[in-house]
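Dear colleague,

Thank you for sharing your sequence with our group. We've completed the structure prediction you requested, and as agreed, I am returning the results in plain text so they can be pasted directly into your records. Please verify that the sequence below matches your submission; if there's any discrepancy, let me know and we will rerun it promptly.
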Amino acid sequence: MQNPKYQHKKKISTQETKRRRKKVRENHTRVNMENAQEAGLNTNEGAKGIPDRHRPLNLPQWGVPGLGLRQSSPVWSDLLVLKWLLGLCVGFPIVCFWIKSNLKKNKEIQKNAYLAAFQLLYLMPTFHIVVKATQIWYFNGLAYKETTAFERVFDKVDGLPGIAKIAFASQIWKFFISMGEFDLAWPEFLGSQLLSTVLSYWTMSVPYMQYYAVYYFGACELTNLPLAAIDLGRYYPSTIGSGMKGVVDIGLKVLFASLFVYFRVYGWFFMSKQVYEDTMFILDAKNLPAGFEYPCPREVVYGVVVMLGMFSLLNVAWLWQIAKEAKTTLFGGKKKKGKSSSSNSKSSAGRGQPPARKGTRSSARKKTN
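Please find the predicted structure tokens below.
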């Protein structure tokens, strides 16, 4: 029989050994986990600069270079985009059918129900965009807020993603609908719709230039509201145009010209100048804080400036046409045969709005035959 004192010492030594072994195992486990994490991080970050997939990503994950296309892209995952796109696509044939069914005696509208349905439907997204943007820009005080270059370029603006999504859906719908009608398929307008589609996609995909997007995508669209009434009166002179003669017609044209000069010439110039200065500021490495990463590819940074320049040139061209039309209206003068319709259409055309052509699709076919 063993001594009780010896048994007690043996029991204590056994417990101490277990504690030491457990502590050693925990230390080994902790070291192994730290080494594994460090090795995994270094491996991922060392492979052509690709960060660990579990860490937050600032750059686009995959897709068309510069477009920021992602697996969670709002193109096919956002309900607001799908709702507007589906609504416009389904609503267009319904409106066309309604016009043909209820306005059978009106040959002028019956002849081109396609164009009438387009004008009526496009007013819906335009009106929504104008209301939302005006509230953010003027009533919420964004236009009067003191901001820095970094805030204007990289800060998010509440409510803007909804504007960009509606603009994106409506521009896609408008592009394809315009290709189906001779009076809408002007190359310069189809091109401007494509540019607007890309810009609106960038705006809703990455937090870049959202401050400026409120002005360009929203406030400037105010010019298209009186323009839509002017276009309807020109497309259907006997039905709608007869009720817009005199004071109403002149008032709408003056309102459109005033809004165009204020938003797309005066305001556009100063905003574009500020966009260029802010872009140069953020592209200078010495102005960037330590560890800063762009929330978008550099293609987007340069692409915004280039596309803005293209739209500025279009605005100058349309301003020239407006000036020529105003001169003719105020001082009279003969218009060259065959160019009057083109001048009228372009003079009252804001960005993204269709002009009127002298011939229709049917008349164009007759001339070719």
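Summary note from our side: Confidence is low (pLDDT under 50) at residues 35-71, 336-369.

Kind regards,
the structure core
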